[in-house]
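Annotators were shown the component list below and the corresponding predicted structure, then asked to write short factual statements about the assembly.
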Amino acid sequence: MTDELKKRLLEDVVIFSGKEEVRTGAELLAPDHSPRERYRTDSLPSRGALHVKTDLQRQVEQFLFYQAELLDTKNWQAYIDLFATEGVYWMPARPEQTEWMDSPSIFAEDRELMSVRMGRITHPNAWSQAPLWATNHLIANVVIEDLADAWVCVRSRFQVQELRRDAVRSLSGVYRHRLLRRGEDFQIELQRVDLMNAQAPFDYTLQAWV
Amino acid sequence: MRPIEHLVEPDRVHRTVYTDQEIFDREIEQIFEKVWVYCGHESQVKAPGDYYTVQIGRQPMIMVRDRAGGINVLHNRCPHRGVELCGALSGNTGSSFVCSYHAWSFHLDGSIRGIPLPQGYEGTRMNPANPDCSMKRAARVGIYRGFVFASLASDGPSLEEFLGDARIAFDDMCDRSPEGEVEIVPVCHRVIQHSNWKFFMENQLDALHPSVTHQSTGVSASKIERRLKGEGREAPLYYHYLSTFASSFDQWDSVQTVNFPRGHGILKGYMGLRPNDPDTQQYTEAMHRAYGAERAEQYLGRSIHHVLIYPYLSVQSPLQQLRCLRPVAPNKTLSEIWHFRLKGVSPAIYRRSMWYFNLVNSPATMINADDLENWTKGQWGLESNGGEWVSFHRNYGRDTRDGDTTYSNNGTSEVVMRNQFDAWSKYMSRE
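Structure shown to annotators:
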């Protein structure tokens, strides 16, 4: 080690932040540069209706599980029949969308349009259905957000694996069901599906309801 | 790579034009990084600092509104060490771009604004007067009726020359607004095609495929449409969007194409988009008031299904949507799907075209599901050695040439592909 190097290594400096008048480099150069949304505290999710009775919670969960099972077993008509006459399946393109009729959507289907989709998937010349195709749904984090005598609003999270040809892809997101109470059973008035990757590129299309 | 004249013959092309990496690289250089490429619509960047990122060929770019109200298209790259400047798809960047690495900052026109500790550059050749210190700009930016294009080549045809008669795509879309303008709907669906970009461009004007490829959806939709009508209920117009796919070969053969220089073209209308309901009547009246009866009828009566701007854009002007291709690899193409709102029309008229966006162009499309399947399978076939040539013989020699435009006499004529490859050869043969 040379004397010069020994000398240089003894020259220490300590820099520190924390003084309010010190601004960081980027802030100093362009204080209005703020491309990201600020951290928000005004939109906490609902803790759910904690007073919900266990049996209602269980009925709702069983309904969601059954719905998923109908999709995975390709019982399309039985799936459609879970929807009320005016029921709607809606997958918005963006999470901030609030109504299905006038929003550009990924899915926006009443029972009639669902019947069109079912007719397509089950047609012998639905070419895209020729390769292997199957799904596997898992539903979790089921929270009853709100309820009244006639209806229940439920939030849940889904994880779907989809097999197509030789590849498996993963889809996930949030379901929000508005369910009409029919004794101990339910009918779907609105099923809102917010896919996590709704605005990311899709590797192939979504052929059936998620 | 074979010489171009050995790849493209008047009635057939060699399969490698869809599969070969070297040909793809040359396409990017000779076509996509030279021609006018669609970047977006003015209404996507309304306020100073608003930006959208966009890919031109292999180049990540930013379209940004500056303080003077102009739109710039810049390379999304810090000139210091190359770091991407905008990490989000879109947003507002304030009064400058700031690099996340060393805080070089740039005005909204790309010129250098500040460098930290600038004395460190004194006496070097990297100083603010050197253009290398600023973000690189697209060579040319052009706007046609609110649609923004950029070219990375400083010479070549003007935007209007490049678009030629296919500029009707944007005229037709805007003219259908009583105010003569559209604005973007801020939703972009992106779908990856596992096929060469040419599959999409050819398919768009291919009138033979719909009743085969889309049979399942066409048949299913027309069944429900008939049932609703049978029950005395109203079948919304959007059933018709789907059920027309179930038409016969002869019917499709009557839907003609118009083929322009540079590979552009038109598939003429076939959906009859002028129903006689109160919403439409009110809209027609508004159009008559805005333009006078004669011009309004000319605008509303145009027979266009969609217009192709070769080699990457399909504009469905009567329903205000467009699909833009960004080629990624010989066998991979990203499509971006946008929708526009006619200014000055009722929500009912907007809803009508939005439902086409939902049913046909969304990622849950009941139509393109089968197109994508075809193109993937087509790509695999052309990657195989099972045959060397792709046939475009249908109605060869039986189209009508008028000046530099070719009209099909049978809608299913493969003049579309022949015309596109004529343009392709010219682009690819340039020095």
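Statements collected:
1. The two ends of chain B are 15 Å apart (CA to CA).
2. Chain B has two domains: 37-151, 163-429.
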